[in-house]
Amino acid sequence: AIQMTQSPSSLSASVGDRVTITCRASQGIRNDLAWYQQKPGKAPKLLIYAASSLQSGVPSRFSGSGSGTDFTLTISSLQPEDFATYYCLQDYIYPRSFGQGTKLEIK
Amino acid sequence: EVQLLESGGGLVQPGGSLRISCVASGFTFSSYAMSWVRQGPGKGLEWVSTISGSGGATYYADSVKGRFTISRDNSKNTLFLQMNSLRVEDTAVYYCAKHRVGPTDTLDYWGQGTLVTVSS
Fold first, then answer.
1. Torsion of CA A56, A99, A65, A7, to 10 degrees
2. B17-40: per-residue pLDDT in tens?
3. Is A38 within 8 Å of A45 (Cβ atoms)?
4. CB B105 to CB A91 under 8 A?
5. Residues of A with CB below 8 A from B103's CB?
6. Tens digit of pLDDT for each residue in A20-67?
7. Phi-psi bin for B35: left (phi > 0), alpha (psi -120 to 50), beta?
8. Across the interface, do B95 and A49 touch by the CB < 8 Å criterion?
9. Sequence-ordered list of residues with C-beta below 8 angstroms from that of B119, at least 6 positions apart, any chain
10. How far B48 CA lies from chain A's nearest CA (Å)?
11. pLDDT, tens digit, for every residue of B75-96?
């Protein structure tokens, strides 16, 4: 099974900061990677699919990049509503696997 | 508007069984694969199972293989997860999610979840 490793596991930042979260796959997964945002008590929300494609309705301050084994999610200018937990998911092969999550907190 | 509504969660004893459901609306249900994803208390997301649009292909996490069965009734726009031989570690919020069609078939819409608690 493919292991997905996210870093950091937690991050403190301020409104307006640029933030990058990384996800590394234990083997190559082409660009078959998605990023999700989850707020407490809510379902995850799709942000990015196919590593770099922005889901409809998601603000353009979110962007994704990468291919193969290394991927990044970047938030260009943090807004108050962006403080949440972020997960990557590999869509390359079954069993599907999520990263362990990155909790983004207000500094 | 895509809507996914889970139901059927509750308290069950270890070794017991439970079937949870997810009613879908706002899209042509039979055209899309569907999945179950769970989240234990204070934990991250764990993919559980996927079923193709026709129901002809199913996939399971090793942690539930042989105990859980995913199925669907396309005439009723409903997804099911039959959970047998439940363990304490199966306690979680269970989300159903719709797959997208395109360059990747990731999960694009999620329900709000149903809580399954396994405890004596």
1. 130
2. 999 999 999 999 999 999 999 999
3. yes
4. yes
5. 49-50, 53
6. 999 999 999 999 999 999 999 999 999 999 999 999 999 999 999 999
7. beta
8. no
9. B11, B13, B14, B88, B91
10. 9
11. 999 999 999 999 999 999 999 9
Query: Hey, which residues does A34 pair with through a beta bridge?
Result: A89
**Calpha distance A19→A47 (Å, rounded):** 15
AA letter at A99: G
- Sign of the Cα torsion B57, B31, B76, B106 reads positive
Query: Which structure tokens are listed for B52?
Result: 């193709």
Q: For residues A17 and B100, what is the distance between their CA atoms, to the nearest angstrom? A: 32
Of residues A31, A44, A100, nearest to B110 (C-beta) = A44
Residue B104: predicted pLDDT: 81
